[in-house]
């Protein structure tokens, strides 16, 4: 099991690094675009479309990261006021709803990407499949991350001393 946890940790670091790199690239491009537009009156449609694409990529890529890091939408100060049994039930319910929403988004995102992906974008002049394709990919990776957290959560219910995931959820 130690080897599996080590491999998971390495994969997560790669996953996180890709997300951080996309935010860094987007930030640099936005700074350059703003300076070019307001100082030199220069605006390039390919760059604007690239920034939008990287923004969409980082948004859908970050779904799994937010879940692994427990940065998903939960108001902890209110959640912690409820009894322990309610917290456990609500956490389980949150995981199931999140899995369902991600599955639906993945299904319809893939359908949309395949249906309209052959059209060419006006800015970068590449097929839209490269832009729309991140929706199902990000949702699939998000599903994997939520399943990992759900497994840890269920394990913590049976072995609470070894795994503090119930408190995190």
Short description:
This protein is an all-alpha fold. It has helices at residues 2-40, 45-68, 76-79, 84-116, 129-132, 134-158, 165-168.
Descriptive keywords:
0% strand, 7 helices, 169 residues, mainly alpha
Note the topology.
Layout: H1 2-40, H2 45-68, H3 76-79, H4 84-116, H5 129-132, H6 134-158, H7 165-168
Helix pairs in contact: 1-2, 2-6, 4-6
Describe the structure.
The protein starts with a helix and ends with a helix. The model has no long low-confidence stretch (mean pLDDT 86). The protein is elongated. The chain contains 7 helices and no strands. Helices cover 79% and strands 0% of the residues. With 169 residues, the protein is an all-alpha fold. Helix 1 runs antiparallel to helix 2 (45-68) and helix 4 (84-116) packs antiparallel against helix 6.
Tell me about the largest β-sheet. none
Query: Which class of secondary structure composition applies to the elements?
Result: mainly alpha
Annotation field: number of helices: 7
Mean pLDDT over the full residue set: 86
Number of strands: 0
Helices and strands, in N-to-C order? HHHHHHH
């Amino acid at each position: 099991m130690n080897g599996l946890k080590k491999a998971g940790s390495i994969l997560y670091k790669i996953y996180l690094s890709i997300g951080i790199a996309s935010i860094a690239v987007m930030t640099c491009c936005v700074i350059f675009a703003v300076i070019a537009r307001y100082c030199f009156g220069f605006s390039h449609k390919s760059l604007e479309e690239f920034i939008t694409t990287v923004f969409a990529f980082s948004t859908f890529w970050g779904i799994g990261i937010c879940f692994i890091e427990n940065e998903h939408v939960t108001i902890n100060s209110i959640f912690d006021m409820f009894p322990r049994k309610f917290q456990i039930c609500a956490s389980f319910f949150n995981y199931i709803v999140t899995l369902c929403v991600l599955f639906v988004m993945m299904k319809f995102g893939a359908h949309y990407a395949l249906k309209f992906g052959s059209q060419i974008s006006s800015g970068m002049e590449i097929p839209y499949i490269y832009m729309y394709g991140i929706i199902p990919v990000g949702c699939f990776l998000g599903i994997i991350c939520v399943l990992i957290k759900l497994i840890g959560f269920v394990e913590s219910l049976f072995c609470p001393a070894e795994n503090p995931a119930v408190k995190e959820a």
